[in-house]
Amino acid sequence: MSGIPDRLQAVENAIVAACREAGRAPGSVQLLAVSKTFGPDAVLAAVEAGQHAFGENYVQEGVDKIAALAGRGLAWHFIGPIQSNKTRPIAGHFDWVHTVEREKIAVRLSEQRPEALGPLNVCVQVNISGEASKSGAAPGEVAALAEAVTRLPNLRLRGLMAIPEPVEDFAAQRAAFAAVREIFETLRGRFGPDFDTLSMGMSADLRAAILEGATIVRVGSAIFGSRTYDK
Ligand SMILES: *Cc1c(COP(=O)(O)O)cnc(C)c1O
Q: pTM of the full predicted structure?
């Protein structure tokens, strides 16, 4: 676990620097630490260094970590692909879901959300890279899906999420994020102040994402180190 506090600090510094470059308030970007494939001890090292929001991609792994770290006031975000037979544990344990791409999944999450937990925060995932990506709703379908989410009683529509195709070129990174931001801004007028979240940017493209308006960046390897496996 050594190194996690220093790497976390370096990522926080990079976020502040990008905010400054963008003329944005440093507190306007939240760091989501993506702990997939790392154990509860790694999460705990980040918690002790001040981190409180964590992202998980795999349902059972995430649920196990949530249980292992209960009672610490952490926020858990589900950011992986969702199979319809896995919606119940997601609805029952997570605070946020970033990867809603079909109405059927949204309906199940709402039906299965325990009322005692309050509404589940939801972002609609946008497929901004076309055929290069299989995940996310097509840009032309996002408004209707978001509208459907607003009608579900146990979901709270918070914004959009995107994972653009990885590219090295900075201008190309910015262009993809700018396209997501345009959709976000169009919809903000329609959905009002609760629609406040733009989840985009990872270890390799966080600066471009912040320059284009990200409010949550999802960072894994830059904090926890490279993953020795990925499912
Ligand atoms: C793994 C993952 C991340 C973090 O990626 P890094 O490159 O390790 O920062 C962010 N978002 C999603 C959806 C992921 O699956």
A: 0.97
Give the number of C-alpha atoms closer than 13 A to the C-alpha of residue 110, restricted to the C-beta side.
18
Confidence tier at 118 by pLDDT (50, 70, 90): very high
**Top mutation candidate among 56, 79, 101, 127 for ligand 1, by most atoms within 8 Å of CB:** 79
Residue 32 CA, closest ligand 1 atom number: 10
- Residue in this structure with the two tokens 């912040």, named with its chain if needed: 210
Q: What is the pLDDT of residues 88-99, one digit of tens each?
A: 999 999 999 999
Domain 4-224 has CATH 3.20.20.10: yes
Task: Look at ligand 1, atom 5, and give the residue with the nearest C-alpha.
Answer: 220
Contact between 35 and 224 under an 8 Å Cβ cutoff? The reply is yes
Beta carbons within 8 Å of 213's beta carbon, 6+ residues apart: 177, 181, 184, 198
